TrEMBL record:
Membrane topology: Multi-pass membrane protein
UniProtKB keywords: Cell inner membrane, Cell membrane, Ion transport, Membrane, Transmembrane, Transmembrane helix, Transport, Zinc, Zinc transport
Stored Pfam families: ABC-3
The name this protein goes by in its record: High-affinity zinc uptake system membrane protein ZnuB
Lineage, opening ranks: Bacteria, Pseudomonadati, Pseudomonadota, Gammaproteobacteria, Pseudomonadales
Gene: znuB
Superkingdom, taxonomy of origin: Bacteria
Cellular component aspect of the GO annotation: ATP-binding cassette (ABC) transporter complex
UniProt function note: Involved in the high-affinity zinc uptake transport system.
InterPro entries: ABC_BtuC-like, ABC_TroCD
Organism of derivation: Metapseudomonas resinovorans NBRC 106553
Gene3D superfamilies: ABC transporter involved in vitamin B12 uptake, BtuC
Amino acid sequence: MADFLLNALLAGLALALVAGPLGSFVVWRRMAYFGDTLSHAALLGVALGLMLDVSPTLAVTVGCVLLAVLLVTLQQRQPLASDTLLGILAHSTLSLGLVALSFMSEVRIDLMGYLFGDLLAVSPTDLAWILGGSALVLLVLIPMWRPLLAITVHEELARVEGLPVAAIRLALMLLIAIVIAVAMKIVGVLLITSLLIIPAAAAQRHARSPEQMALGASLLGLVAVCAGLALSWYKDTPAGPSIVVSAASLFLLSFTLPRRA
């Protein structure tokens, strides 16, 4: 297997593995718009990274984490509805990123790669960031699984039981921010949320427990990555969108199978 294809496969599989359980929480807590906001802000992180001459992946990671903290803070203090606030930040950060990039005429930028992903161009350095970020998220997510489930089922009851609900909610948002930052290279800022949501939504129909749904979402994500890469390799289609199309096909296929009682 060619090195660039092996890098792409390993990066895609690592992301799919961690996107499954996180995507399950995104579906359960109806946080799709939050994911969209962070993914749109990733482009602003790219622009800042190029302006400051630091790694775009590092800049996007830091930017997404800071935006997650800002969102939590504003949601607690502003009278605006959450979806209104998210809509303002999503489009403002995306537009600001595009404007900032337009001023850097001396820098050659593959804007389509950032918007829609360029999985086959993943370098060993990119792969290290993706593997490291995915491993970090899994290591944090495993001990937090039960508390996250508790606040997802009933926040007030979890608060009565003494769980730090606000801190757990913020931790979940930070984990999503890290995954979105490292996934940018694979599916692009405009398609990241799809990879989080679609496998989880497909697995939800046939799962009998939260753990089954998380595992099923990860497995469907792994299949989507392999199928999308195969489609890209043999038909010369863009890798990121091909993965999302494969995930969407699995979602539609899930409706043809009988639902488990």
